[in-house]
Amino acid sequence: MRGLLGVNRRLWGGRATGFTLVELTLVLVVTALLLGMAAKGLTLFDQSKADQLLLQVRQMESLMNEYKRTHHRWPGDCDGNGQIDSSMTDFVGAIAENARSIRAEHFEFTATSPVASSESVNGDPAVAGNACPIALPTVHSGELTPTVASGFNVPYNDLKLAGLLSVAQPNRIAAMHAAGDFMAMTKLGLGSPLSGSDPYFNAIVLFNVSVSFSRKLAVALDGFDGAEAYKGRLRRIRVSGDGFETSWVNNSGVTNETQDSLINVAYFFDQMPLPQTY
C-alpha cells in the first residue's frame, strides 16, 4: 500500500518526486538491452546481405558453367573465342561509385523475350547452332544507344534463351545484386580494364560493394583476404581504370577509407590472372 501511495504522490503532486535509484537502474538496463539488440540486429542484417551476395555470385558462376557445358561457349561470347564480348570499356563514365543510375541504363528494363540472331551480332559471326541474342533497339529508346546497352545484356539473354533464367524478369532486375547495385558478366583487360588492353580474362563484376563485403567474398571464394587485393580470384578494380588496386583500403591517392567504403570488384570465375602489383 505504501508503495502505491508513493507512486500516487509522485504522479499527483505529492511530496515524493523523481525516480528512485532502483528505477533509474532498471531504465538503464532496459535501454542497454534494447541498444544491444538493435546492434546485433544490424550485424545479422549485414551478414545476411553478405551471404546473399555470395549466393548470387555462386549461382551466376554455376549458370555460366552450365551454359558452357551445353553450348560450348560462355554466355555473351558470340564469336566463340573463349572471351565474353562485352568489356569494361563500355562502362567508361559509369564505373564511379556514385554512377549507379548510369549503370542502370546499360541493362534492359522491360521483360521483352530475347530473340536469337541467325547471322551475326555487332559484326561478330554467331557460333553455328548457338546464335547470340540480337540487339533490341526499341527497348533502349531514350537511354543509351543499343550497341552500348546490348553488350551487357547478351550474357543474360543467352541464359534466358537457354532456359536458365526467367524471361519474365527484366535484365535490370536480374543484374541487381544484394548490396543494391549491379552485376555484369564481361571481360577485363589485365593491365588496364577500361582501356581494353590484352590479355583479357572473363569476370563477374560487382559494382558498389563495401570493403567488408568484398573481403568476406574473398575469404569464401579464395580462402583468404589478406591485405593485398590483387592476388586471388576476387580483386578490387581501380576506378581510374589503370589495373587493379594492391590493397583493400587506402591505396595511392585514396585516404580515409574504412571497411564501409564502397568499391568495385571483379571475380575471375574462368581463368585466374597471375598476381601482379600493376
Number of domains: 1
- Strand order within the widest sheet? 3-4-6-5
Number of helices: 7
Helix content: 25-40%
Strand count, sense and barrel status of the largest sheet are: 4 strands, antiparallel
- Spatial gap, N to C terminus: 79 Å
The count of strands amounts to 6
What does the overall shape look like? globular
| Rg over C-alpha atoms, rounded to the nearest angstrom | 26 Å
Q: Structural class given helices, strands, pairing?
A: alpha+beta
Beta-strand residue percentage: 5-15%
* Mean pLDDT over the full residue set: 75
Run of helices and strands: HHHEEHHHEEHEE
* Low-pLDDT windows of residues: 1-9, 136-149
Please name the defining characteristics of this protein.
278 residues; alpha+beta; four-stranded antiparallel sheet; two-stranded antiparallel ribbon; 6 strands
